[in-house]
Fold:
Amino acid sequence: AQSVTQLDSQVPVFEEAPVELRCNYSSSVSVYLFWYVQYPNQGLQLLLKYLSGSTLVKGINGFEAEFNKSQTSFHLRKPSVHISDTAEYFCAVSDLAGSARQLTFGSGTQLTVLP
Amino acid sequence: DTGVSQNPRHKITKRGQNVTFRCDPISEHNRLYWYRQTLGQGPEFLTYFQNEAQLEKSRLLSDRFSAERPKGSFSTLEIQRTEQGDSAMYLCASSLSAASYEQYFGPGTRLTVT
Structure:
């Protein structure tokens, strides 16, 4: 079984400042890692994913994340945020052992960008 | 590609009533997933289909929950004898195939049980 911990439930940040949203996971098998964003009253949109290869992954809207296997972390970063980045962000894992490919999500981090 | 659609977007029902939600996946996707999201939490996996076959249903929350995907196209999720604790957002996602890890989510159906 896997679990995902998002260490901050809310992150306020001023516009144009950098931001890091933290994610740690626990799993007895290898996993793939994902970050999704959810805007109010909308479904989840994939920001980026780590499947293999370079541990630094770039996604949409200027976001990137770094996979750290030894620390079992997959933190999301953006060097300069915009008001439009205000949303809920979810970290998720999918284990490689099973065939279901279902996602296990963290509880989410609400990012609020302040003017 | 019109994306994953879900209907209705909102449903208010009285305790004890049955409700049914519909999900239309992206047309060429043969995998379909259902998740439930309660307030302040991330989505929780419920069940999934490969074409018309339901391959995992042990995570459905109780025997009041059932899902179908006739003909491997759209899917329905039914909750019988609804309870207030069933109030949540029900999300559907689809993916291209069994080999694909990328899931595309619909906008969800928000259920309120009064």
